Fold this protein.
Amino acid sequence: MKDISILALFGINTDELENYHVEDNEPGALSISVSKRKTFSSCPCCEVLTNKIKDYQNKTYFFRNINGYDLKVFFKHRRYWCPECNKSFMESNPFINTHNYKLT
Ligand SMILES: [Zn+2]
């Protein structure tokens, strides 16, 4: 199964994704590497829209029994930089605030 529709459970539209890669080399387990497209985001401090990238953080999440699969997500989490107030902030992360699933 090389099916990324499982990401819809996290509210992700695959059109939002810049890149993804699915591996299913173990029975009952899936690994997905994913990054989102660059978009204009509103600075939480001054609300100016910016698409300037400061850096990235690689994050790993584990979810148990998602449609019968143990899911491992490698998320390339982008940090934007605001030229107006010189602060940085993370893009929205669809893999947190998923209270239904166990995060480790
Ligand atoms: Zn700002």
